[in-house]
Each structure stands twice: as C-alpha cells, then as structure tokens.
Design a protein that fits this description.
17 helices, 31 strands, binds S-adenosyl-L-homocysteine
Length: 767
C-alpha cells in the first residue's frame, strides 16, 4: 500500500456503539467493543472525513470503493472505519457478463462493514447522477466514478435511488435505510391525503406488446391482474412464429394486432417502420399532388407483365417469396383482383407506388399497427431457450448465448432497447439460473441494467397461486428509471417449494420467510380443478359440449366465469352466459396404448407395473416376469412394451401412470405422452383432455384454442400459468399507480385467486 498510516484524532464524538444495523449478509465484521467515535482521521498527510468516498484495499489487490460513515476506536485500542460499499457491475450478480458496461458506473448499496483504518488507500470522487435511459457516458462529469442506482442481492434488485430530500446537500447520507423509512411514511401520508392516482389511470389504455405470445397465457393473465389494480392494460400487439398459436391469440383477443413472424424479423421490421414513418411524416400536399399522377403499375412477383397496385394492405420484413434476399416487403392488393391474388412485393419493386406506400404508412401509424419507440407501455415475453431446457439433451454447455436456440434472449432485449417501454416482464425456465453458471439469467439482467432500467428477478412456483401444478419459472421485471419497480406477489397457497436454485439465487425464490406469519390457503389438488368435467372417451372429437354438472369448488366456479365476469367489461356479446364446454377432448390413444391403459387399475399410484407379466425387484427395477407367458395385444405387440422397462433403467413409475384425485401435477408439458409422463385420468381410460390441461394452467373455460389437437396441447403447455401472470399483473398495476411498497414482495388480497372482477371489486355487475 505504501502509505504510512498515522491516525490523529481530529475531533472526537460521543461514543455510540452499534449504531448501524448489521449488513444484509450478517457475516461481515461489525465491531461491537467501540470506545469512542471520531469525525475525521488523518492518514499520512491526508485528512479523511465522514462521508468521504475512498478506495479500500480489497482481495487480490482489488481496489474496492466505499463511503466512510464512521471512524471509531475499540476498547483494545484499534482504529476502524465503517464503510458503506458501492458495487461495481462485476461485484453484482451480473458478474463478468457486465463487460460492456461503463467501468465508471457504481451501484449504491446499504451493505456496511468495519475495517481497520489502514485498509484505506486514497480518496476517490463518486458522484450521484439521476438515472436516464440512453444517457451518453461522455456527458457525465469526469469524476472518477458515478452511481445512479441501488443494488441489493435480494431478488437481484437494481433500483432507482429514492431521494427524500433531493436538494439537501448537507445530507450526504440521505439514502441511509432510516431515510428510506422516512420516504415510505411520506408515501403513506400522500396516499392517505388522497394523492394516490390509482383510479385516474383506469380509463387510459396501457398498451402491452406480447413477444413470443404463444396462445397468450402471459398477456391474458397480466391484463386480468392489472384490471384488478385499476390499470386498463390491453394487449395491443402480439407476435409468434407459430401460426396456430397466433390464431388462438387472435380468436381470444380480436382487438390485438397479431403478427405471425419470427421475432428477429419483427425487430428489423420495427426499425424499418420507424424510418418509413419518419420518411412519410410530412403530409406534403404538393408532393402528394405531383405523385398522384404515378401510374402505380409494377411487375408483379413471378410475373413479367405490369399490374396496377390498388392498395397496400400489410408489411413484413424477411423473404416471403423465398428469393434469398431479405428486406421490407409490402402485401399488395392488385386493381381488379381480390384478396386471393394478393402478393408480397419487395419495397424496391414499388418505387413508383410512393402514394400507395404513403397511404399505408400514414394509416398504419394512425392505427398503430406496429409500435414505434415509446408506444408500448409494457413488453412481456418468454423468449424460448430450447437450447437449455432440462428436457433437451443437446445443449451447448460452454457458451449458451452462441446457441441459435438461445439467441432469442438477445432479440428480446434488442426489442426492449429499441422500443423503450415503461415496464418489461420476461419469463423463462428455472434452468437459466443453473445452466452455464446462470449466464443467460445474468445476461438478461445485464442488458436491462446497461439500458439503465431497474430490474428484479424472482423464481415462482405456479402452484403457490392456486393450481394443482408445481411449475417453477423465472420472472424478470424491468422498469424505466422514472417508474416504480414492480414487486413480486407472495404465495396465496401453501405449496412447499422443494426445488432449490443454486445458492447464489436462493434469495430469489418468491416465498414467505420461514418465520414470517402468513395466512395461506390449502394447496389445490387435481380434483379441485377438474372433478366437475363430464366423462369423455379417449377418441372424443366434439369441440364443444355442455358441462352437465354444476361446479363443485371455488376454483371451478371461478374458472367457469364468463369473459365478462373475469374482465369486468364486455368486448362483444360475452355478457350472456354461454356455459358451453370447449376443447374437452384428448389426443386419441393408439389402439395398442388404449388396450394397455384399459388394464391400468383405477387407483392411486397405478402404472405399468400393475400390468400382468411385470415383477419389481428389491432394487426397484421393473422387469419382465420370465416365468409366465407374455401377454400380447390383439395386434401381436406385447401388453407391456419394452420401453417401459428401459425408461430410466426400469426404475420409473411414470409409464402408463394414472394421476390421482388428491395429487398435483409436476409441470404441464407441451405434449402429454403416457409413455413417460403421469398423464392418465384417474378414472377414465385416456390422457388428460385439452381442457383439463388448460385448467391445470389456469386458463378460464371461455379461453379457446386453435390448430390441431397436438398444436393446442403445445400452446397450453408452453403458456405462463394464468394465475401467476394475473398476480404479476396486479403487482404491475400497483407499480403503475405508484401505490406499491418499497419491499421486493407484496401480499395479495384475500381470495385473490378465485375472485372474478366483480367479486374482487365487490361491485355488482350491471343488470
Ligand atoms: N408466453 C406464452 C408462451 C410462449 S412459448 C404464453 O404464456 O402463452 C414460446 C413461443 O415462442 C412459442 O409459441 C414459439 O412458437 C415461439 N417462438 C419460438 N421461436 C420464435 C421466434 N424466433 N420468433 C417468434 N416466436 C418464436
């Protein structure tokens, strides 16, 4: 260190031992045997005062940065200082994925500890600046370091610092925890004075862009929940590369602009759309008149002769005609032809159709067919990471971001960066926190923080919100620095989270602390969710039928609510109670499998091991009983197929296993195969129907699905469980209204999980 340390007491203070609470970790050293405090210390020739920021000797020659908040001497005569630490980005959970961050950026923290005074190296300038999206680093004063956000390891939170007394320059420590409490009470006072804006926002539409929308589980739940905290969140745009998923979304949300394209093309399209809007912004009458004389005659795709353009009806980015060239294409309606003759034409081929393009762009901008920067208030989405899923054996372990299948996290964040929404919600499988030392999870956080967004990451089990399904997922909130960062909703149901993430993310699990008082409802069981549904055969083909029986549980009563009852307003004629049951049909079993399933006993725990000709050894391995003649099916195939014995080395009890009424499902997957998952109905010889799976995911019964039966299962299995998204939507609404708390978690109101809009708001629906 090379600095001769001599400490002079320059001004003594009243002794005040243990004035600070222990830091968050509780493991860093806090000294208790304090004799007296000082306001300044002279080390070498330099005088250090309380409030000064300093370099402190760290591990392995690293220079840490902190602010001196106390000087004191212990009863055994040693001189200490108490330091409140700043984090560099690589000290946070982001770690090395922060290489593209500004090296001068620090993060404020409330973590403090005590160190011997000779660890102080020198003074350093640290300036607080207000966080601004898109702020160029060069424009920041040339102090050594700056900070604009607070970092806290609980839920990996990066948050705008809340200044209680912004212009009180004397209060260097105005961000200490005690002042946060002051601020909370200031907020409470404001609320009690009626300054809470909660109702004002209701009518104003808050627009949502759902990326990788699937059939819309995530956005549907978010909108339902936001309504319950008086925010009129509306899915304005949705995007998915899967056609049937887009059709499902459109069927249930006719008001949404649904785009069936790849997200990477959508990103390029958004950039081009912005350029086009700028290019055609000025409604220049002269130019318009001049170009009215355009012939608008152009050669049509795959045709040498010229046709006249009637109008442009759509736009896309990509290569719809498979020519090998990517770019902006317009969908053209030709004069004298109908929609079946529409073609995609590259923008370059339409150079003498400026007027048609202008009309399309102007109209499209007015109708907001695509979001421009600032248009989307919220962006949500679950960028698929098939390259890391635990169910995927072929994964690129070393650098998952290079894996094409995981690239969507980058695309998702690029779209956020372009559109700059107020809020972001990203969902993913829990494996993003396990795989490759959590590099994908860190990357997502890193991008948000680099964009100066606030961020908070939570691990949520769907069962905790009133479903008979466990389903663990990661959710990442992002919020523009001027907005409130949404909280995570505490569980409403008593489900034990058995899975535990890597130790570094243990403090991200959304749950009650062990000793925290709570009032939880009992965990839901399969029978609570589906006992009221009529019996159907394995090869049932009806798309709709009557319910036959009344609902038996709160869940069933709630899930049967009409759209009008759920949402609190009617889009069309959904006010009338339709009471039809849709999609209560399953993927038909193969003849052999059907014959096998019919022989599985109808009792708890039954599976292929209960079929004749199977013996189970002491090693819990199922083998063929070679002492008996093998049973065969009419097709000549063995009753018990070979794969049942080889799956998980014969140890599994999942092949041809029945669920039981008092059980919960681990995770609804994209296809319920009875060969390796527990998906047989307890008392009927079939796998769970689409509707049963949809209920396990919390989709309201009015929600319908498009595509083949297989595609529909896939949409349901891919979805974010509606009750989770709904609880998150409620939390989002509170943040929008600035009526959320400062802590990372919130407690949901009673009966939240099974109250429809009118029950929740306790207003009667109009007659
Ligand atoms: N959030 C949805 C489920 C999303 S599942 C819900 O809650 O219902 C992931 C979706 O990403 C799938 O529907 C899949 O079709 C879509 N997808 C995969 N790759 C894509 C890409 N490159 N661009 C757009 N969508 C893609």
């Amino acid at each position: 260190m090379g600095l001769a340390v001599s400490i002079e007491v320059l001004q003594s203070q009243r002794s005040n031992s243990q004035s600070m609470k222990l830091n968050d970790d509780g493991e860093d050293e806090i000294i208790l045997n304090v004799e007296c405090h000082f306001a300044q210390a002279k080390i070498g020739n330099c005088i250090f005062s309380l409030g000064d920021c300093v370099y402190v000797q760290g591990n392995e020659g690293k220079k840490d940065v902190g602010r001196i908040i106390e000087f004191f001497k212990t009863t055994d005569g040693e001189n200490y200082f108490r330091v409140q630490w700043f984090y560099r980005v690589e000290d946070t959970v982001i770690k090395e994925v922060g290489s593209f961050h500004d090296k001068r950026r620090l993060f404020y923290s409330t973590v403090v500890n005590d160190n011997l005074i000779d660890c102080i190296i020198s003074k350093v300038n640290v300036t607080q600046i207000s966080p601004r999206v898109g702020l160029k680093v060069k424009s920041i004063a040339s102090s050594d370091f700056y900070y604009d956000m607070e970092y806290c390891i609980d839920y990996s939170t990066f948050r705008t610092l809340v200044t209680v007394f912004p212009d009180n320059s004397l209060r260097i420590h105005s961000f200490s925890s005690s002042n946060l409490i002051e601020m909370e009470s200031a907020l409470q006072t404001a609320k009690s004075l009626g300054n809470s804006p909660s109702c004002d926002t209701y009518n104003a539409e808050f627009s949502l862009l759902d990326l990788y929308c699937g059939c819309g589980g995530m956005s549907t739940g978010l909108c339902l929940g936001a309504k319950l905290s008086s925010v009129n969140l509306v899915t304005k745009w949705a995007l998915d590369s899967d056609k049937s998923a887009c059709e499902s979304l459109k069927l249930n949300h006719p008001e949404t602009h649904v785009r069936n394209e790849a997200a990477e093309d959508f990103l390029e399209l958004l950039k081009e759309w912005e350029k086009l809007c700028r290019q055609y912004e000025v409604d220049n009458v002269e130019r318009t008149n001049r170009s009215r004389s355009e012939t608008s005659r152009v050669p049509k795709h795959n045709d040498e002769t010229e046709f006249e353009v009637s109008r442009i009806i759509d736009i896309c980015y990509g290569d719809p005609n498979k020519t090998g060239k990517r770019g902006v294409n317009f969908r053209v309606r030709w004069k004298g032809y109908g929609s079946s003759d529409d073609t995609w034409e590259p923008i370059g081929g339409l150079s003498n159709c400026k007027e048609s393009i202008r009309d399309f762009v102007k109209n499209g901008k007015k109708l907001k067919i695509l979001p421009l920067p600032g248009d989307a208030d919220v962006i949500c989405g679950g960028p698929p990471c098939q390259g890391i899923s635990g169910y995927n054996r072929f994964r690129n372990v070393d650098s998952p971001l290079d894996d094409e299948k995981n690239r969507q996290i980058i695309v998702f964040m690029d779209i956020v960066n372009l559109l700059k929404p107020k809020y972001v919600l990203m969902e993913n499988v829990a494996d993003i926190l396990r795989f490759d030392k959590a590099s994908l999870g860190r990357y997502a956080l890193s991008r948000l923080v680099q964009m100066t967004y606030q961020a908070r990451l939570g691990i949520i089990a769907a069962g905790c919100y009133g479903l008979p399904q466990f389903r663990l997922r990661v959710f990442l909130w992002g919020a523009h620095p001027s907005e409130n960062l949404p909280q995570f909703p505490r569980p409403t149901h008593d489900v034990i989270i058995r899975y535990w993430p890597p130790p570094e993310f243990e403090r991200n699990v959304v749950a009650y602390d062990e000793d925290q008082p709570r009032e939880l409802e009992k965990a839901l069981l399969l029978q609570d969710a589906i006992s009221d549904l009529p019996a159907v055969k394995h090869n049932e083909t009806s798309e709709e039928m009557s319910f036959k029986n009344p609902p038996e549980t709160d869940f069933q009563r709630y899930i049967r609510s009409t759209q009008y009852e759920m949402v609190g307003s009617a889009l069309d004629d959904t006010k009338k109670k339709e009471n039809l049951l849709y999609d209560h049909r399953s993927y038909p079993l193969h003849e052999d499998d059907y014959a096998r399933v019919c022989q599985i006993p109808k009792r708890k725990g039954a599976n292929f091991r209960d079929l004749p000709g199977v013996v189970v050894g002491r090693d819990n391995v199922a083998r063929r009983d070679l002492t008996e003649k093998q049973s065969v099916l009419p097709s000549g195939k063995p009753l018990v197929p070979d794969y049942a014995f080889t799956f998980e080395q014969g140890k599994s009890k999942r092949p041809f296993a029945r669920l039981w009424w008092d059980e919960t499902v681990a995770t609804v997957l994209t296809f319920p195969s009875c060969h390796n998952q527990v998906v047989l109905h307890p008392e009927q010889d079939r796998i769970l129907t689409l509707r049963e799976c949809a209920r396990l995911q919390g989709f309201p019964d009015y929600y319908r699905f498009c595509g083949t039966v297989r595609e529909r299962y896939c949409q349901v299995g891919n979805a974010v469980a509606i009750p989770v998204a709904r609880a998150l939507g409620y939390a989002l609404g509170l943040a929008v209204n600035k009526s959320n708390g400062n802590e990372p978690l919130l407690t949901l109101p009673q009966n939240f999980s099974h109250s429809n809009y009118f029950q929740f708001t306790e207003i009667l629906p109009p007659p």
